């Protein structure tokens, strides 16, 4: 696999500083039942990295001490961590909103069939991957049969109230482009998703999050192999919008890896870039009582993926 970091380190991306942390994004491990082409984590069925019970305890302590509003769980498939359910229950007991970045097909794997009921019981906000509303495109990016499985699971979630107006159970979907292009305008694409999925499958959901693909890890390596890395970076930089800088996720979020080390965002985590201006990795245990407001944010060339065009973050487009 090609290492894209040497191509990203030198940058003229604008300097950024933090606001108070409102979201703790925790990667519970790289184990996943899929190995998607666009995955910036290199997650897959053979990965062994999973957050331990000791680190889970630290996450709960941080939530309690810092009074964080939202716990954002990601992976891999976060549900494959054996401590997933315990963490959810403890966070919800603190009054924290829990968001789960769901690969819907995990629900059809043995041992995970009751996840929809667990989600509903604890009122998790679900962010489900469905990178296109066309079967061929989804299976091309994520594997044969993934689209059909995802539709079945989303229909189950609808029956429990997810995505249904006034239910209070939030179901958002995530779109990623198939290749080195910017996502189309989010509002128009969301309307297309809702119309097609509603007519064809009777599906409902709340919002569509349209995300740009990051030129790192598996996707970045593919770009290098195809001679598309430099053109894609030129596309991102050429579409940079200063207005998006105020809304990028790293201003209000910190990202924690499966070992408990902390980064400015999930993408910096995958590049192993220490938090802010630190020379070495910083562990969550050392931040439980630390105010990170106004700390510098570490930036590099890949940050243009968040500010290009309509912008891109874990919550979708940054501007209309």
Task: Write up this protein.
The protein is an alpha/beta fold and 320 residues long. It has one domain: Aldolase class I (TIM Barrel). Helices cover 32% and strands 13% of the residues. The protein has helices at residues 5-8, 53-66, 84-93, 115-121, 135-142, 146-159, 186-201, 217-225, 229-238, 266-270, 304-307, and strands at 16-17, 23-27, 70-74, 97-102, 125-129, 171-175, 208-210, 253-256, 261-263, 282-283, 296-297. Strands 7-6-5-4-3-2-8-9-10 form a nine-stranded mixed beta sheet. The radius of gyration is 19 Å and the shape is globular.
The SS-based structural class is alpha/beta
Helix tally equals 11
The main sheet orders its strands as: 7-6-5-4-3-2-8-9-10
Radius of gyration: 19 Å
Regions with little confidence, pLDDT below 50 for 5+ residues: none
CATH superfamily: Aldolase class I
* Overall pLDDT: 91
For the record, what CATH class applies? Answer: Alpha Beta
Shape: globular
Q: Would you count the extended β strands for me?
A: 11
Main sheet, how many strands, which sense, barrel? 9 strands, mixed
- Distance N terminus to C terminus? 36 Å
Q: How many structural units, i.e. domains?
A: 1
